Amino acid sequence: MMIEKLNDIRKARGMTISELSEKSGVPLSTIKKISAGITKNPNMATISALIKVMDCTLGDLDPRSSEEQDWEKAGLVPYHPQNRMPLLGKVSCGMPMYAAEDIEGYIASDFEEDGEYFGLRARGDSMNALGINEGDIIVVHKQPVVENGEVAVVLVNGDEATVKRFNRQGDTVILSPQSDNPEHHPQIYNLKEISISVVGKVIELRKRF
């Protein structure tokens, strides 16, 4: 319903998809997916940019509660995540990457780009200098390769995953903690002797206060 109304308003304004992209700053590929119905639930940041250019309101696109309409009048945008990703207590070796018993629940995901994402609950204090503390949730993009210096989720010899800053030089991998606890030291591995596999790149930290 929202997508149909958005297309109707755009056409009524005499705007092409390219013009809408140029004026709103929303990528052309994103708008094409929305217009074609491929992306059925665009996030609120995208919708806000589009309706601003088309000179309409959220109410023109989707009937909402009076409370949400009051938020809009105050210049606020309600947050309604449309997607979700699994929250894991641990990541272990095996196929699939995580088993049902490892899933604690699900958390909101607004990532539009291609890829697989999951949340992982942090353990210990080996990365607390980056603000990652016991019980925090890190968001991970599943990928088999990361750049040197990036924070990654890594499996060492197929054991439960560790979160460290990743560096590789030839056959040597260094997994460095980022901690104010002096008990934590860089872990150095020879790939000819130890199996090291990257599960994914840490891209976000979610905390509760």
The percent range for helix content is 10-25%
Q: CATH-wise, what's the superfamily of the largest domain?
A: Umud Fragment, subunit A
Total strands: 9
Radius of gyration from the CA trace?
Answer: 22 Å
Which structural class best describes the helix and strand composition?
Answer: alpha+beta
The tally of structural domains comes to: 2
CATH architecture of the largest domain: Ribbon
Structure commentary:
- The protein is α+β, with helices and mostly antiparallel strands and 209 residues long.
- It has two domains: 2-73, lambda repressor-like DNA-binding domains (434 Repressor (Amino-terminal Domain), Orthogonal Bundle); 86-206, Umud Fragment, subunit A (Ribbon), CATH 2.10.109.
- It has helices at 2-12, 17-24, 28-35, 44-54, 58-61, 66-73; strands at residues 83-88, 103-109, 117-121, 137-142, 151-156, 162-169, 172-176, 187-190, 196-206.
- α2 (17-24) crosses α3 (28-35) and α2 packs across α4.
- It is elongated, with a radius of gyration of 22 Å.
- The model has no long low-confidence stretch (mean pLDDT 81).
